[in-house]
Structures are given as C-alpha cells and as structure tokens.
Amino acid sequence: xxxxxxxxxxxxxxxxxxxxxxxxxxxxxxxxxxxxxxxxxxxxxxxxxxxxxxxxxxxxxxxxxxxxxxxxxxxxxxxxxxxxxxxxxxxxxxxxxxxxxxxxxxxxxxxxxxxxxxxxxxxxxxxxxxxxxxxxxxxxxxxxxxxxxxxxxxxxxxxxxxxxxxxxxxxxxxxxxxxxxxxxxxxxxxxxxxxxxxxxxxxxxxxxxxxxxxxxxxxxxxxxxxxxxxxxxxxxxxxxxxxxxxxxxxxxxxxxxxxxxxxxxxxxxxxxxxxxxxxx
Length: 280
Ligand SMILES: NC(=O)c1ccc[n+]([C@@H]2O[C@H](COP(=O)([O-])OP(=O)(O)OC[C@H]3O[C@@H](n4cnc5c(N)ncnc54)[C@H](OP(=O)(O)O)[C@@H]3O)[C@@H](O)[C@H]2O)c1
What we know:
Layout: E1 4-8, H1 16-26, E2 33-37, H2 43-53, E3 56-59, E4 73-74, H3 76-81, E5 86-90, E6 93-97, H4 100-112, E7 120-124, H5 128-139, E8 144-148, H6 152-165, E9 170-174, H7 179-186, E10 191-194, E11 220-223, H8 230-237, E12 242-243, H9 246-261, H10 267-276
Parallel strand pairs: 1-2, 1-3, 4-6, 7-8, 7-10, 8-9, 10-11, 11-12
Antiparallel strand pairs: 3-5, 5-6
The structure holds NADP nicotinamide-adenine-dinucleotide phosphate.
NADP nicotinamide-adenine-dinucleotide phosphate binds at residues 61, 100, 103, 125-130, 149-151, 154, 195-198, 200, 207, 224-226, 245, 248-249, 252.
C-alpha cells in the first residue's frame, strides 16, 4: 500500500520511487513509495488526502513554497528558507521540513572531501534550491556566501537575511553577467554552486561566462542539476574538481527516509535504486 509519495508537476522523470523503495525494501518494509503528478491548483485537495492517508511526502517543483500555508507546522530552518521538500504526517498532523541543505552538504563532503565549516561559497541562482541550501550552509559554519542571480533583488533578500542571522558571515550579491566581479569572487571561493534551472535542456544558455571556470582555479564546482550540463563539462575539461547533483538528491532522500522511519538510511542501496530505476 502506498504510504509515501513524491509529488510535483511534472513528476514522471523522478527517480525518487526507485531510491526510496530500495531503502524500504532493505529494511523489509515493502515498496510503499509512489509518485503522483499534482498540478498547482490540486495541491490543497492533495494535502487533505495526504493528511488522512499518507505517512510522508516529498515535494518538488512547483510545490516547495506553496505548501507552507497548507500544513500545521514548519521547522524554523525551512520557514526561514521559505522552502519545504519533506512532509512528516502523524495522526493527521503535518510537519514540513527541508532536507535539501543536508543533501548538498553531504554531497560536497562525499564528492570533494572538503568540509562546509569555514568554506567560502559562490552561488549562481537565488531560487528555492539556493534559498534552502544557503541558510543550511550558513548554519553549518560557512565563512562566505556570495550570490549571483538574474533577478538580483532575490539574491539581495537572501543575503540581507543571512547577514542579519550570521553577523560574521561575508555576503555579497551580483548579476551573473558581472563577469569582473564574479572573477574577483572566484579567486576567494572554495565551492561554486550552480543552482539555476539553466542546463536542464541542452539548448539552455550558460548561466555565467564559461571562461570563469578557468584552468588552475582553486574552487570545486557543483551543479545541482543531475544531468551533465555544459558548465559541468567545462569544469571537467579544465581540470576543476566537479560534480553534478546526483549525490545531493540521494542524501536529501536519505535524510527524508530517516525522518520518516527513524531507521538508518542504506545510502548504497538508495544510490543503486536511484541509478537503476527507469521512470515511465
Ligand atoms: N540535486 C538536487 O537534489 C536538487 C534539489 C533541488 C533543486 N535542484 C535543482 O536546482 C535548480 C533550481 O531549482 P529551484 O527549485 O531553485 O528553482 P526555482 O526556484 O524555479 O529557481 C530557478 C533559478 O534559476 C534562475 N533562472 C531560471 N531561468 C533563467 C534564465 N533563463 N536565465 C537566468 N536565470 C534563470 C532563476 O533566476 P530568477 O530568480 O532571475 O528567475 C532562479 O535563480 C533546478 O535545476 C533543480 O533541478 C536540485
């Protein structure tokens, strides 16, 4: 019986069912995780259904923000970021949290063996993913968070709130086409995080000047998108340590599983389930 679900619009591409059911099966709990397309206007009805029938939900685009007024409780960090990707449902009570920041932190550790504490970050993008992860990284001890975004006001709102909450943190904002400023930032960066939706399609333009990823750079490049994007290819070609978003997805899913079940997530099995699952 389906007790857990990922919802989004679209959702057919999601590999979360393969990844989560691998974890449930490892613990002999069957395959209780499904996927459902929920359009924005259907979200209130879905939440009413989930309240009665489900134990947990993962949310993806476009529901991470819209769900907040519909649920009973939101963890402070998720409220701060304005982004919820996991619902925990118990006796009709729905609590929302975000595991995206945890997912990014653990993906960086596993990919690059470099800790977040003391790290200097440069984000491209200021949408839901950047929002949720930037606050988590600041809480985890980042030393600098600089954000370049097309709509620079959105980057500004995140930076202002980060500076308010973390007085010692270096923050700055720019537009992605301010190449000279970005060049300056990147000379003082440990991790460049690509968090726009550009790169999901082959024909997308690069979110920043690709030459900013120059041979001899000292930073690691992480693209939150879990396909090979042109910037990821560029980073690899010039010898910058680089990774795509697969491990972030796996670790955020592992954290959701642990919150729902109280069991240790079998990360290796989840990784295999993620890779082998063929969405319809
Ligand atoms: N690996 C993982 O576990 C994971 C988890 C969450 C998200 N993600 C990835 O993160 C990415 C962003 O997701 P999100 O939830 O943050 O989406 P979102 O809230 O819709 O934000 C989209 C971001 O992309 C920028 N953008 C979109 N089109 C653009 C264009 N034509 N030119 C310049 N900038 C553009 C937006 O800039 P404006 O603010 O100017 O509109 C914004 O910064 C997605 O690709 C998603 O796949 C990965």
